[in-house]
Amino acid sequence: MPPAIEYDLIVIGAGPGGVAAADTAALLGKRVAIVERNTVVGGAAVNTGTIPSKTLRETALAIAGVKARALIGVDVSVRREAKIEDLVRHERVVTASEAHQMRTLLDRYGVTVYRGTGKFVDQHTVRVTRPSPIGGTEDLRADKIIIAIGSCPMRPAVFPFEHPRIHDSDELLYITTIPRSLAVIGGGVIGSEYACMFSALGVRVHLIDGRDVLLPFLDPDLSHTLAQTMERQGIVFHWKEQVESCKAPRSGEIELRLKSGKELAVGHVLVCAGRTSYADRLAPEAAGFGLTPRGLIPVDEHFRTTVQHIYAVGDVIGFPALASTSSEQGRVAACHAFGSNAKQALAQYLPAGIYTIPEVSSVGLTEQQAREKNIPIVVGRADYDQNPRGKIIGDKTGFLKLIFERDEMKLIGVHVIGEQATELVHIGLTVMMTGGGANLFLATCFNYPTLGDLYKLATHDAILKRSELLGRVQASLSRW
Ligand SMILES: Cc1cc2nc3c(=O)[nH]c(=O)nc-3n(C[C@H](O)[C@H](O)[C@H](O)COP(=O)(O)OP(=O)(O)OC[C@H]3O[C@@H](n4cnc5c(N)ncnc54)[C@H](O)[C@@H]3O)c2cc1C
Ligand SMILES: NC(=O)c1ccc[n+]([C@@H]2O[C@H](COP(=O)([O-])OP(=O)(O)OC[C@H]3O[C@@H](n4cnc5c(N)ncnc54)[C@H](O)[C@@H]3O)[C@@H](O)[C@H]2O)c1
């Protein structure tokens, strides 16, 4: 075996966490190697998760004519004729382009990309096993190592995944027809997003979940409105259920028997029952760190494992397991590893964006969380159909909900459901980052007509509620 090739940093895994770590370390002037077992970089974010699912959603909205229906009340949908090629064409182009862009940036930063599967030999050495037909191994050695190997779909034993019409979220991208009916197992983020997308395409969707609330981490008003809207779209929820058996004949419908005894017959099954990690395959014992019972890598606030020069970021460390936060963690870890204070911690507020139909997004405290913390609050709400832009786009269910700390009217939470919610939340997020609140919204001139103007309307609502609550006339409110 030739001697190990020396680097300052080895990164294992080229998803958003790993790539951000590698680019950051290169920017700090370090010699960096990144090991990726896939043919392309980008990880789940670019190749199997975030970007594909969001692109498919956008295509589905277009080919199903959903927006046209809302605007002119006419079904101009082409969905009955839509073929799977129509659905996936744009997704393939966007995904390839994004992976190429990430790779180009790595190359421009001078990061060396090793194609193969990485595994620890000892605390400083990573062995890269190249895929066949080239095969063989290569050892890399570095002072610092960052693990960013991501996660993969959980596969409950009850489902025969070898069946061509039973999919996890990775395999879904290779379906060969648009199903007529679909059972989605798991109403988490992935399940909810795909349920909405297929429903928009006219697929009969059943959503089965062990819980009884949709996305319980959301503000209850959002969760409730989303569930209602999904039901109106035709999605059938089966709460507090579990699949006990799954009979999948070669042809004909797949039969699911649920815990309650209910039976469902569907064309395809999509299992979105959470994610798991393959960290045990890295030989962590050779490096000297352990795993949690769920197979995740425990880290400290600097993303260091118990072995001080080995870091872990992204899905492999667990919550929040997002592309956005994984990149942030990668940057923090790389800066810490090389003593840079350019980015010492994650951003103070981390938003969540869910691409259901309609979109949902939030940052900061929910009304419930604020009340549990005994923070005196006032809530402002503005509905899309009270706003001229909302009326123009025909969004009847959307709303913006702002949570203000009552004394100073400082913004502490933003919750949006409706078109462009994942973009709209950023206005509130930026205000929260500045420590601002109602005054800033009132002082700001928004374009007219825009959804952004909802912030002003929701602020007025909060101010009026505050004056009702405190029994003061509105004029005295300039005091805050
Ligand atoms: C369907 C779906 C939709 C999603 N939508 C969103 C969204 O809208 N917004 C959002 O923020 N997040 C979303 N996510 C989550 C997001 O994709 C992940 O949080 C993010 O990709 C995690 O980044 P990562 O760098 O930790 O790992 P990954 O992106 O999973 O990358 C890990 C990389 O490591 C490689 N690897 C693994 N083991 C080895 C090894 N031993 N050697 C070498 N390479 C290895 C893998 O091939 C992979 O390329 C979604 C996920 C899914 C599945
Ligand atoms: N827009 C986004 O930010 C976005 C989109 C998709 C995925 N993601 C990330 O991907 C991760 C994984 O998403 P996910 O939806 O797979 O997992 P999840 O953990 O969010 O949801 C899994 C759901 O499946 C249910 N469940 C699990 N096993 C079940 C069973 N046997 N029968 C019935 N219900 C069952 C759970 O009750 C839960 O509601 C998320 O944590 C999220 O961070 C983010």
Q: What overall geometry do the principal axes of the alpha carbons give?
A: globular
Q: What is the CATH homologous superfamily assignment of the largest domain?
A: FAD/NAD(P)-binding domain
Question: What is the end-to-end distance?
Answer: 71 Å
Q: What percentage of residues falls in helices of 4 or more residues?
A: 25-40%
CATH fold-level topology of the largest domain: FAD/NAD(P)-binding domain
Number of strands: 22
Distinct ligand kinds: flavin-adenine dinucleotide, nicotinamide-adenine-dinucleotide
Largest sheet: 7 strands, mixed
Q: Report the CATH architecture of the largest domain.
A: 3-Layer(bba) Sandwich
Radius of gyration: 24 Å
Mean pLDDT: 95
Number of distinct helices: 14
What structural class results from the helix and strand content? alpha/beta
CATH top-level class of the largest domain: Alpha Beta
Low-confidence stretches: none
Give the total of domains: 3
Summarize the structure.
FAD binds at residues 54, 118, 315. Belongs to the class-I pyridine nucleotide-disulfide oxidoreductase family. This protein has helices at residues 16-27, 43-48, 50-64, 66-72, 84-108, 189-200, 220-232, 284-287, 323-337, 367-372, 388-393, 421-434, 438-443, 454-470, and strands at 5-12, 32-36, 112-115, 117-120, 125-129, 137-147, 152-153, 166-168, 181-185, 204-208, 236-238, 243-247, 254-258, 263-266, 268-271, 275-276, 310-312, 352-354, 360-364, 377-383, 399-405, 410-417.
